[in-house]
Amino acid sequence: MKNLFLALTLLATTQWIQGQVGINTVSPTAELDIAASTTNLPALELEPQSVPTGAATGQMAVIGDQLYMYDASRGKWLTIAATPLVFSRGGDIGSQSLRMAGNLTTANSGILLPFDGTIIAITSNSNTVSGTATNNLAAPFNVRIRQSNTTIVGGNINFNLLGGTYNDNTANIDFSAGNHIHVRAQNTGTDTISNPTVTIWVKWRAN
User: What is the mean predicted confidence (pLDDT) over 130-159?
Assistant: First the structure.
């Protein structure tokens, strides 16, 4: 009888461990379901902490005053939301800087970055290519991460629109607070790229 009782206890414990857990609900719809109570208390509170050791994508932590998720593919704690930085220029352009705010005319000006972060994607598009030659889709674009008037190590990215568009969603390029980003079309031929747009997707990084 004692062995039977022990077996039933172990079975019940195993089912509880493998089952769903509900807080403020008797019908959980996830492995852990926290339903808002009728009080004005938040459903979940994460205490701020120093940067933990990440082990798997999906782990979350409040670091400072922001919510971060561990990105195992990049080996970094990054903010959940990505911020797009859009650079563009209307008309047919040759070797010229793209604009985000104002008229950027030199590589020493650009978007000043307020926090440490990581470029996680770069996308680009252009509606037409015109000029005396057939096309110039091979003309490169140049994205630079700069500190003052110097491009940082690893902060020089080149690409073109030979595929019609450009989409790199595996980028993993770090920058620091105080760096700035500058984007330039590097056309050295007779053709011009028409109405190009380059979008740089960044997430803020916990060090």
Answer: 76
